[in-house]
């Protein structure tokens, strides 16, 4: 039973850390342990470490720490690329040494030995394509071509010069401070790829997420089938019912079968739990990026829209409170002539701030040209089409 509880704890702790790290800021976790863990993981842990270094080594230690942090987080470096290779390589190696000797099995054909290598190989190829492809670097030679791709919407993009590159910033582009270059249709800088995700490589990035999701599901299901095959080949159910006298029903057999699997194949079960959690995360990431692709929005633009909408909301609120103040001043001057409003009526009356003044705050994304057109733009980027400048979008 000890191993069983260890596995349950492993699964729960992994899930807790991953959920806290990725979703700890969500409003539903406000004031909970998950939010505190998120703060610790994203900021607190480093701060404690910095204080420890300062205490032991003094200011020279903290300076060294800041320099290391600068080179690891603010400069291009292959640390996360190496980590990706280590995780994928390590997991696949563990599967090969722990599970390949049971293939072919009752439920798995021998060809899975080769298709699994092929599946990991395709994943690696997508990783190379995303990492080393040009995301759409803008320079003095091609800036005029990129300027013709998208019009300025004058909401989140207006004509501006990049203060570092000293060239006009095309609409939807951004200067990546890590790579030190302007990138067309900038999505985000991906540390795992050590590259920007932009106009030309968003397709590879989204394919990478989708393929790795399938890869994890394939791994989980394949190991599950291998274990089911072992159960069948070793006639575990027969032994349990005939020799141990356990009732031949799902309810009474399940705990014994699970216990047998965990004690005999704990490496495989650990890998299955890990792959299942990663596949869940990847499905979330893929879903998010796919929804961005089909609405022709970039990650960078979602932040810009958030800023714009919250600013618009504040302007609206300020307007409403000015009007409310004006109205109450008017009321005050007319108080003597106006009949007094019922106490209850004024209690239930909505405040001016809550009243809708009819002006709706909307996100007017002029780059959204419909589901299929947007998807086509990801698959076949505008900049790689023959008549580069002929694909100007109409501002509406
Ligand atoms: Zn720039
Ligand atoms: Zn970058």
From TrEMBL:
Cited InterPro entries: Palmitoyltrfase_DHHC (IPR001594), PFA4/ZDH16/20/ERF2-like (IPR039859)
EC numbers, comma separated: 2.3.1.225
Keywords: Acyltransferase, Membrane, Transferase, Transmembrane, Transmembrane helix
Record's bilayer topology term: Multi-pass membrane protein
Segments forming domain Palmitoyltransferase DHHC: 158-305
Localization: Endomembrane system
Top EC class for this record: transferase
GO molecular function, one term: protein-cysteine S-palmitoyltransferase activity
Regions crossing the membrane: 7-28, 83-103, 115-133, 203-228, 269-290
One Gene Ontology biological process: positive regulation of response to oxidative stress
Domain of life: Eukaryota
GO cellular component: endoplasmic reticulum; Golgi apparatus
Reaction(s) catalysed (UniProt annotation): L-cysteinyl-[protein] + hexadecanoyl-CoA = S-hexadecanoyl-L-cysteinyl-[protein] + CoA
Comment text on domains: The DHHC domain is required for palmitoyltransferase activity.
Family: Belongs to the DHHC palmitoyltransferase family.
Record-given protein name: S-acyltransferase
Species this chain originates from: Helianthus annuus
